[in-house]
Specification:
The chain is an alpha/beta fold. It contains eight helices and 17 strands.
């Protein structure tokens, strides 16, 4: 059995282990419920997390993934009105034609990787012979916007959503909610990843009247996912605080992120390394031996032609060090961007 069931007095939550169903978009359990509920004309909500057609394409021969020339991110692929694929960078919005052969090895084994809203819509039509509607988060982020598409949402049996509705839509109840990828936040290298992932699931379970949920995950042992399925905020908090204490993250330390950007990569390294060495010198000579200082590229290394690099500082009493260092080194005047209370480090 590839799933666990978490029973609550008014909810059934099924956690599916997708590592045992790697070749499938929909798990066996998901397909079973979809077939049953489509026949019974019950309302189905599928949360896909990502808009458009596919995350990127990958060469199955050499592993090459085409990236945007302006930004260090893979090119995402969408379908236009005539169902033709085109590429776009989700940072700078530059568009690209889809290449059917690898730009690196020139082999023709190039395939789409992962599945987004448009691809799910296509699969549902092909597999279940059922039309669905895609509702993007920006279309339902206010009561006025919801009212404009209310009749359209009500008329469709299957709704594909890109994110969670903060407030359920009045008079529209869903019989089942399906998460296609419950690991979405866990794939982001940030100290708030577990917290964001937990809230994404927990808020869905607690705010909506739906009785049945299917959670597809490649990481079913994650405490953020398991505690959400258990509806246990207290247990999650205990695990999360232990994680943060072990790795010296807030609230156990103060943090500061110093970001530098430059179109010339060598200048970037020179400027960041110089400031890094100056901060280390103040640390050693000023009696700040316990402070952590390290430099690292952010998740997106290049944006809009500019390379990016972070210096991250962590310490229980960081403000004293920050005030002394920033005054002495004139960091603002050197075009560094400083975030004294970062919400993330990506």
């Amino acid at each position: 059995m590839n799933y666990e069931q978490f029973k609550h007095w008014d909810k059934n939550i099924f956690l599916v282990d997708m590592t045992k169903e790697k070749s499938k978009i929909f798990s066996e359990l998901t397909e079973k419920w979809l077939n049953k509920y489509i026949k019974e004309w019950k309302k189905i909500w599928i949360i896909v997390n990502k808009k458009w057609y596919s995350s990127w394409v990958i060469c199955w021969d050499c592993g090459y993934i085409p990236k945007c020339k302006k930004c260090d991110v893979p090119i995402a692929y969408h379908l236009d009105e005539s169902w033709q694929e085109f590429g776009i960078c989700h940072i700078c919005k530059t568009t690209y034609n889809k290449s059917w052969c690898c730009e690196n090895c020139w082999w023709f084994d190039v395939k789409n990787y992962w599945t987004w809203t448009q691809k799910i819509q296509e699969i549902i039509l092909e597999k279940f012979k059922k039309k669905s509607i895609i509702i993007e988060s920006e279309k339902v982020n206010s009561p006025n916007k919801i009212s404009k598409i209310y009749d359209e949402i009500k008329s469709y049996q299957i709704i594909i959503w890109t994110s969670l509705l903060t407030t359920p839509i009045k008079d529209i109840d869903f019989d089942i909610i399906i998460f296609m990828n419950a690991d979405i936040w866990l794939n982001i290298p940030d100290f708030n990843s577990n917290y964001n992932n937990f809230l994404f699931l927990y808020d869905t379970f607690t705010k909506h009247k739906t009785n049945n949920f299917i959670i597809q995950s490649f990481n079913t042992e994650s405490y953020s996912i398991r505690n959400a399925c258990k509806l246990s905020f207290d247990e999650f908090k205990k695990n999360e605080l232990k994680f943060r204490e072990n790795y010296n993250y807030p609230p156990y330390t103060e943090m500061c992120v110093i970001l530098y950007k430059n179109e010339i990569e060598d200048k970037l390294f020179t400027k960041v390394n110089k400031l890094y060495q100056e901060l280390l010198f103040i640390k050693e000579t000023g009696g700040f031996k316990d402070i952590e200082i390290f430099s690292t590229p952010p998740l997106i290394y290049k944006m809009f032609w500019k390379y990016r690099y972070n210096i991250i500082l962590k310490w229980k009493n960081l403000r004293q060090f920050m005030d002394q260092s920033f005054e002495k080194l004139k960091i603002f005047e050197k075009w560094f961007k400083i975030d004294r209370e970062p919400q993330n480090i990506i």
